[in-house]
Specification:
Blueprint (H helix, E strand, L loop, with lengths): L25 H11 L5 H12 L2 H6 L1 H4 L12 H16 L10 E4 L5 H4 L6 E3 L3 E6 L4 E4 L9 E2 L2 E2 H8 L3 E2 L6 E2 L2 H6 L5 H21 L10
Antiparallel strand pairs: 1-4, 2-3, 3-4, 5-6, 7-8
Helix pairs in contact: 2-5, 5-9, 7-9
Length: 223
């Protein structure tokens, strides 16, 4: 057996220590500094790219390329505009669990226990597929969702619809394994987690589209 001073297969002198690694190469950093000034940082470039990727004009103009290859990121005149927008968007999208829940009207019927009140089975839109209303379960109905919130898309679905689909009880056909999103809320003593998460995603969706609609023009930088 190895001595205490020797490392073995399972030893890790850096256990619990994380090292941040930037995916912005020194070459790219130097290139952007030549274009936008020596104060540009790796984080600035990341946020700038994040902002550019949310530009509807960028997605339209480069649509054919985006289907065939990795995104090509243009340099634009308003670097700071896209940087600031991208920084706000990235912070909101990674910290979505901490944003203020949207002020939806929460209607409760019946007198269930707290554990039953917030349990979700499968969410659905209101009568006639009214997207301003979501029937959370047999006891809770959420209304007042602005239609604009559905403009924020994650792939082919809006972020709201993604949450509705993801947070439902399912049973795998072959294995019969049951996936119940309520389990996490119960284990962490947060019965309202899912209903408040849905409200937070409405906030994220609305605020995202406000920023996207206010993005600068995609005017290319001529060097």
């Amino acid at each position: 057996m190895p001595s205490a001073s020797e490392s073995d297969l399972f030893s890790n002198s850096d256990e619990g220590v994380y090292t941040r690694v930037d995916n912005i190469t020194d070459e790219i950093l130097s290139d952007y500094r030549r274009s936008y000034g020596s104060a540009v940082t790796n984080d600035d470039i990341f946020c700038y790219i994040y902002g550019i990727l949310h530009s509807p004009k960028y997605r339209t103009e480069f649509a054919s390329d985006l289907k065939k290859m990795l995104p090509r990121i243009p340099k634009v005149k308003d670097f700071q505009g896209f940087l600031k927008a991208g920084r706000t968007l990235s912070a909101m999208h990674t910290g979505y669990e901490n944003v203020t829940p949207y002020k939806l009207t929460e209607t409760v019927t019946g007198s269930p226990s707290e554990s039953d009140l917030y349990r979700v089975q499968k969410m659905a839109f209101g009568k006639g597929k009214d997207r301003s209303t979501i029937i959370y379960n047999n006891h809770i109905t959420l209304s007042g969702i602005p239609d604009d919130a559905y403009r924020y898309m994650l792939g082919s679905k809006s972020a709201i619809e993604w949450i509705m689909e993801r947070y439902q009880v399912t049973v795998h056909k072959d294995s019969q394994i049951r996936n119940d999103p309520n389990d996490w809320a119960t284990e962490h003593d947060q019965p309202r987690y899912i209903v408040d998460l849905l409200k937070r995603i409405v906030t994220v969706s609305v605020e995202t589209m406000k920023i996207v609609d206010d993005l600068p023009d995609l005017e290319l930088l001529v060097q």
